[in-house]
Amino acid sequence: MSVKSAVRVIEIFELLSQYPEGLTLKEISDELSFPQSSTFNLVQTLSGRGYLIQTSQKKYKLGPKLIHIGSNAMDSLDVQTEGDAYLRRLMENVQETVFMAVLSQDELVYVSKLEFNRSIRTGAKIGSRMPLYCTGLGKAFLAFLPEGESEVLISGMELRKVTENTITSFGDLRSQLKDFKAMGYSIDDEENEEGLYCVAAPVYNSKNEMAAAISVAGPKVRMFPKKEEIAMKLVETSKHISESLGYRGSF
Q1: 155 pLDDT exceeds 70?
Q2: Is 70 exceeded by the pLDDT of residue 85?
Q3: Which residues pair with 60 in a beta bridge?
Q4: Which of 103, 133, 152, 156 has its CA 20 to 30 A from that of 171?
Q5: For residue 96, how many C-alpha atoms fall within 13 Å in the half-sphere facing its CB?
Q6: Distances (CA, A) of 251 to 42, 243, 247
Q7: Mean pLDDT, to the nearest integer, of 225-236?
Q8: 3-state SS track over 12-79
Q9: How far apart are CA 235 and CA 193, in angstroms?
């Protein structure tokens, strides 16, 4: 059950966030179809507490008190914490192992690993580091980071062969990354560990920056026949995590 005055306060904040130059009391009232008397009372209360400020043109803008609250909210949105429940649900849905990794200089670092009861043979552990060019999570960073950042990472790489499927051509890698960007997810087809198939997708934060990547990994014999279904669920999970971190962009 919503409280009318609380809803109106939220609507005022959301309205003024769209008008950096501010709005007059009448404009706020008209835009939200609020009675002017109740709009006046709400605006005066919010101004008195520092949540709104009034300009010399008698317009109201979002106030400095909201900066402090917003900053604290940002600090509380930890990608690993926010993603845990979504990753657990994904693991149960696809019945395979799921991972989350963050970028650390020119490598990825695993920060979450949730294993389904049928284990897979993988050396990936929380805290371990892996190269970007031959892992699904790593290639998600290379595909979905801004092109300039991705190119800096690629130009500093040595494409060593890890398995028979590892890409060792920069041209092939760039072509593959272009395809992944169009698909919305990346693939590791036995490129880092033989027999292991992985799909990975990006996670974004409120600054529209790529904050992490998540993946589903399992034996190729199980993963490959249902790879499109798994990829769809993976991308949906990445959207939910991104939205929980404040991302409002498009995928």
Answers
A1: yes
A2: yes
A3: 23, 54
A4: 103
A5: 27
A6: 37, 11, 10
A7: 95
A8: HHHHHCCCCCCECHHHHHHHHCCCHHHHHHHHHHHHHCCCEEECCCCCEEECCHHHHHHHHHHHHCCH
A9: 23
Instruction: Determine the longest span between alpha carbons in the chain, in angstroms.
Output: 74
Write the burial class of residue 226 (CB in 10 Å: 0-12 exposed, 13-18 middle, 19+ buried).
middle
Beta-carbon contacts of 64 under 8 Å, excluding residues fewer than 6 positions away, are: 50, 53
- The Cα–Cα gap between 213 and 136 comes to 9
Q: What angle do CA 119, 123, 125 make, to 5 degrees?
A: 85
Q: Structure pTM? A: 0.71
Tell me how far CA of residue 222 lies from CA of 74, 135, 195, in angstroms. 39, 18, 10
Collapsing DSSP to helix, strand or coil, 159 comes out as coil
The number of C-alpha atoms within 13 Å of 129 and in the hemisphere containing its C-beta is: 6
